[in-house]
Amino acid sequence: MQVRLLDFTTLETQLLTMVLAWRNHSDISRWMVNTEEISIENHLRFVESLKNRADKRYFLVQDEDRYIGVIDFTDIAQNSAEIGIYANPELRGVGEDLMRTVIEYGFTSLSVRTLIASVFADNERAKHLYEKFDFIETNRTHYNGREMITMELKK
């Protein structure tokens, strides 16, 4: 599989609107820290703010002729970065491709030594995916009454 990473800050409005529709889809938003629907205005403002941020990178992932999902890196530091993934809600079976892309970009392009993921404890599919790629649980906390697991993968 040959994927292309399309930086949010270079996307045309049509693609940003598509990404926002995915993000606001109930199958995705329910697993986010912010479960509220995001307006197009707020989304465009957020993307514009990324142009001035070295500690955050968001990408639309393209596999040949289809867009398969979004990966992001936040709190990028010298040795670590927090990661996020969500798939195009109309596709199935692309989580592993997205995870491989996150790991390769994080360890190779960002040159970090640790990738950190936060996942709600009841998000079994995400937990299983992280575990499949050898992420290990490092902490449990609560966020808005929900249990949150921190998982890490070291290079």
What's this, in brief?
Keywords: Transferase. By secondary structure, the protein is α+β, with helices and mostly antiparallel strands. The protein has five helices and seven strands.
Describe this structure in words.
The protein has 5 helices and 7 strands. The mean pLDDT is 95. The two termini are 22 Å apart. The protein has a single domain, classed as Aminopeptidase, CATH 3.40.630.30. The protein has 155 residues and is an alpha+beta fold. A 7-stranded mixed beta sheet has the order 1-2-3-4-5-7-6, sandwiched between helices.
Instruction: Predict the CATH topology.
Output: Aminopeptidase
Shape: globular
**Annotation, overall tally of beta strands:** 7
CATH superfamily: Gcn5-related N-acetyltransferase (GNAT)
Could you give the order of the helices and strands? EHHHEEEHEHEE
InterPro entries: Acyl_CoA_acyltransferase (IPR016181), GNAT_dom (IPR000182), PseH (IPR020036)
Domain N-acetyltransferase: 6-155
Keywords: Transferase
GO molecular function: acyltransferase activity, transferring groups other than amino-acyl groups
